[in-house]
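Fig. S4 source data, part A: sequence.
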Amino acid sequence: MKKLQLILLLLLVGISFDIQAQEFDANLQLRPRFEYRNGYKTLIPEGTEATSQISQRSRLNFNYKQDQLSVKLTLQNVRTWGDVGTTATSDKNGVAVFEAWAQYDISEKWSARAGRQVLSYDNQRIMGEIDWLQQGQSHDAIMISFHPKNHQLDMGFAYNSDAENNFQTPYTVGNYKAMQYAWYHTNVDKLGVSLLVLNTGYEYMNNLIDKKLLVDYKQTFGTYLNYKNKKIDGNLSFYGQTGKSADKQVSAWDGAVNFAYSITDSFKAGIGYEYLSGKDMDDTSTVIKSFNPIFGTNHAFNGYMDYFYVGGGHQNSVGLQDANMKFTYNVKKWQFALMPHVFLSAADVVVANKKMDSYLGTEVDFTAGFNFKKDITLTGGYSQMFGTKTLEVLKPGGYAGHTNNWAWLMISVNPRIFTWKK
């Protein structure tokens, strides 16, 4: 540790001849996570055995600030224990740049940021960091922020290519080709109000004859309201989607409401409901009626077993209704949470011209956390899905009669290894 601090100090002294640094810090995150998967993300097929593995995120964050200039660089390695041999000469995944941006504060009210950065807003339903994923989520973008007292307006822009090309070349990364958004937030007493408009353009080839590359734009827009006082914590959101995707019209929506009440200082109980529109299986129209959370932190919604929307799953399907409850209890260094979910399809599930029951199943999630000491946290959880025959239709090959469960245990170590101010 002392050697690392000495290296960082020498680096800082070296650059200070040209740049009079005011603040510099470096912090480290090590996050190994064990998982037991026995029906995680999908119903486990009959006769299939469960699996276990350990993944790990290793991040090194550098933060620098001088007057109106702020810079952040985050390097990370994501691995599965054992995916590289003990005597390997190189790492399978190498070191990736998670964030690399520079921000200039034009004035007290205006700032501009450019580079690889996290775009996360409100409850992260539409735009989030997806921190549960070991690799997380970040964008190559420009973001301009206007933030007078009690107001904030962020405007972002992005344009993507998979290489430096000299002529039009297909964008093969599978990401959006172009993106623009505006997010506004203000507070009215204890009520927070947010508005979001997001325009995402995805490239596609119009046909196999002339192979012309086109970009269709889909718009996601809506509002998020949240209210909080000493006892009550609630939020309401509504988002619509329109535009086009791969030459198909889009018409979808999402609505959610959540309410929680603190019964004591340690115990809180809540109830919630979310509706994500879908498309009947016997609907022959080409209109896309299934809502897509786009860049949302989907793991935090609709059950921790990630049966819906995580990783692109459940897209262009029958949608979802999620009625849920949440009970949390905090005592000293411990945190506990119990979250049951009842899932139903939002549109008709049809098999052989027969409409099936809309009830998909019930998932129960339990989590526990312990603050072992400063910079060290231990968390874990257990989840079980009680699926139905209707869910088997949406998860082909899976068997609902099997015990479908998932368990995990994670250690987060987050020390600040160097701090310097002038």
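Fig. S4 source data, part B ends here. The mean pLDDT is 93.
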